[in-house]
Amino acid sequence: MVLTGHEHSYARFTAMTWDGHAAAFGRGIRQIVVGTGGRSVLPFTNPPREGARYRDDQHFGVVKLTLRDGSWSSAFHRTDGTVDDGVAAGCWT
Q: How far apart are CA 14 and CA 28, in angstroms?
């Protein structure tokens, strides 16, 4: 799992290979970009990249990440009280 920020938007990607392609089931690295806690959100200027599963460039918020033995879940909690993009998956090695 890779968490990144700075982009002034929220985006979640499917499991990806090292070179930026969707990985086969049971492989790959997940990434969530959550840069929605600053002074502004910025619109996306490019179409979604391969592996993009959810994008939000309109709302401030935080990501809640829950880690369990063998699984994880996350959701984007917007400052208006809405919870979007709830997802859960297993972990593999």
A: 8
